[in-house]
């Protein structure tokens, strides 16, 4: 097979994912990103189901898409209604897309229990709907909803549903595993059998309820499907849809199928993260191909081998999908890891084995105490520079105090007082904040601003706390992670203590010192 059509339904099926809600502007931005990625068809939503989707289709007409074609989605006509009079079908036409996808029931259980109509009436609903839309000069894709369950329960009827759509002129017939409960080998066998009954080009639409959606989609393509449907990052109802990101990478890199260009493949990581950001969803770190940990190596033995030949522990070159290799520093690291990590940070340790051993020993001792440098590379960089005596202190803490007050009105307030020494000068300041960490942050930057004016460029963007031993209750150690950023960069720092304010202070000081340190090198 030389070509497979990519059909994205992030804007419709993906929007059914818990926690995702798109604005019209969001949907337009995603459309443009999908187009640049090389997607063939973008399902924009269900016109008429809500005002937002109809508004989207109106505004989408002004988009200048290079490759992708917009698709409107809806259902077959209702039972006992003429297709020409059906509101859903006419809303689909009003959306103005050249391609329309409609779904219809292909499982007799749904026809009887949900539609509560005659099996022959359902066949007429499918045929009439496709024929009507075709008469309006539209290309029509027919989604055979619950097809695999229907095939397993009543093969003859499920096939009749497909034939009804084919007879009416459907351009694609898409086999849907709507409940996501079919095993990969069954998908392959069923698709092969369907091909003996109809000649219309087939598509596959998988859900991930058994964690097999990507594998099932690939198997369906190998069995003869020419179109694959899915969502970016696998967003969707319940356990999600087939992850189109993984499907694209597997088709291109493992099967040699030209679904996107080499340049577009290198945009895969950027597209996955861009759309995750719009969805307000954190990209899963261990997501294959594009996750932050997809090419991360921690064990010293692995890293030693990777540095000699990347094929030893990587199934593909991360740059092919726009990702990068990460060597993680932890108590499992070896000296070669330290040297390589220092090189990435533009720190030349040469071949000084003693320095590497000293850094490694320090890391192992700190991680034993609860520190975690995999997610706090700014703290790691400071640590390496401190151990190798390349770091100068920009300030010293004399003391700090935090006061929390809850007023009768219920409003909470925080005040932090800090005494810092910069050179021989003592700076004593106080500042208010929404919480203790915010108050400390404000007070520190206020104290340092006259000495280091660029400190005003940075601000905290994220704050995370993890209890390290739940059994200790309120006396347990906590690990704090703080993310900060300025005009050019973003960085993470960490602190550990039985006292959450002390842990926060450690992470905060590292964050400030990292900013001052990197500025001093410019």
What does this entry look like structurally?
This protein has 522 residues and is α/β, with parallel strands linked by helices. It folds into 3 domains: 5-260, Aldolase class I (TIM Barrel, Alpha-Beta Barrel); 296-386, no CATH class; 395-451, Double Stranded RNA Binding Domain (2-Layer Sandwich), CATH 3.30.160. The chain has helices spanning 24-37, 51-60, 87-94, 108-115, 119-135, 147-153, 155-168, 184-195, 213-223, 244-254, 262-265, 268-278, 300-308, 335-344, 353-369, 377-387, 436-448, 500-520; strands at residues 5-8, 41-45, 69-75, 99-105, 139-145, 172-177, 202-206, 227-230, 296-297, 326-327, 396-406, 412-422, 425-433, 459-467, 478-485, 490-497. Strands 1-2-3-4-5-6-7-8 form an 8-stranded parallel barrel, surrounded by 9 helices. A 3-stranded antiparallel beta sheet has the order 11-12-13, with helices on one face. The longest helix is centred in the last third of the chain and has 21 residues, at 500-520. The protein starts with a strand and ends with a helix.
Gross geometry: elongated
What is the terminal-to-terminal distance?
A: 53 Å
Beta-strand proportion = 15-25%
Overall pLDDT level: 90
Whole-number radius of gyration?
29 Å
List low-confidence stretches: none
CATH T-level fold name of the largest domain: TIM Barrel
User: In total, how many domains does the architecture comprise?
Assistant: 3
| Order of strands, widest sheet | 1-2-3-4-5-6-7-8
């Amino acid at each position: 097979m030389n070509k497979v059509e990519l059909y994205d339904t992030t804007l419709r099926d993906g929007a059914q994912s818990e926690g995702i809600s798109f604005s019209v502007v969001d949907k337009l931005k995603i459309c443009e990103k999908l187009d640049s990625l090389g997607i063939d068809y973008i399902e924009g939503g269900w016109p008429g189901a809500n005002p937002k989707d109809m508004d989207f289709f109106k505004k989408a007409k002004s988009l200048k898409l290079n490759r992708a074609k917009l698709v409107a989605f809806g259902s077959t006509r209702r039972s006992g209604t003429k297709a020409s009079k059906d509101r859903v079908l006419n809303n689909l036409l009003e959306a103005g897309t050249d391609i329309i996808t409609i779904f219809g029931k292909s499982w007799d259980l749904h026809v009887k229990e949900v539609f509560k109509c005659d099996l022959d009436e359902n066949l007429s609903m499918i045929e009439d709907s496709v024929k009507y839309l075709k008469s309006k000069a539209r290309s029509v894709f027919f989604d055979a909803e619950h097809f695999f369950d229907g095939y397993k329960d009543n093969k003859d009827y499920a096939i009749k549903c497909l034939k009804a759509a084919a007879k009416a002129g459907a351009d694609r017939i898409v086999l849907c595993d709507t409940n996501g409960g079919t095993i990969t080998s069954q998908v392959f066998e069923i698709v092969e059998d369907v091909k003996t009954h109809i000649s219309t080009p087939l598509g596959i639409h998988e859900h991930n309820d058994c964690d097999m959606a990507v594998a099932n989609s690939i198997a369906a393509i190998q069995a003869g499907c020419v179109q694959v449907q899915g969502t970016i990052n696998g967003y969707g109802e319940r356990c999600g849809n087939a992850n189109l990101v993984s499907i694209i990478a597997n088709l291109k890199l493992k099967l040699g199928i030209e679904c996107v260009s080499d340049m577009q493949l290198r945009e895969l990581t950027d597209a996955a993260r861009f759309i995750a950001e719009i969805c307000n969803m954190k990209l899963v770190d261990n997501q294959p191909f594009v996750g932050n940990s997809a090419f991360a190596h921690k064990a010293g033995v692995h890293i030693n081998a990777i540095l000699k030949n990347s094929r030893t522990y990587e199934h593909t070159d991360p740059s092919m999908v726009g990702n990068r290799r990460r060597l993680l520093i932890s108590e499992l690291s070896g000296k070669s890891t330290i040297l390589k990590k220092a090189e990435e940070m533009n720190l030349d340790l040469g071949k000084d084995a003693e320095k590497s051993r000293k850094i490694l020993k320090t890391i192992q001792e700190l991680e034993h105490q609860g520190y975690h440098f995999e997610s706090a590379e700014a703290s790691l960089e400071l640590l390496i520079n401190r151990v190798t005596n390349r770091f100068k202190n920009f300030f010293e803490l004399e003391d700090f105090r935090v006061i929390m007050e809850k007023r009768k009105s219920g409003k909470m307030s925080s005040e932090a007082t800090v005494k810092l020494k910069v050179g021989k000068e003592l700076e004593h300041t106080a500042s208010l904040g929404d919480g203790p960490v915010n108050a400390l942050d404000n007070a520190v930057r206020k104290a340092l601003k006259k000495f280091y004016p660029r400190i005003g460029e940075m601000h905290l963007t994220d704050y995370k706390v993890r209890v390290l031993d739940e059994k200790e209750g309120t006396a347990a150690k906590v690990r704090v992670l703080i993310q900060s950023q300025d005009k050019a960069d973003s960085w993470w720092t960490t602190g550990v203590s039985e006292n959450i304010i002390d842990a926060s202070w450690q992470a905060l000081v590292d964050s400030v010192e990292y900013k001052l340190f990197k500025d001093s090198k410019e």
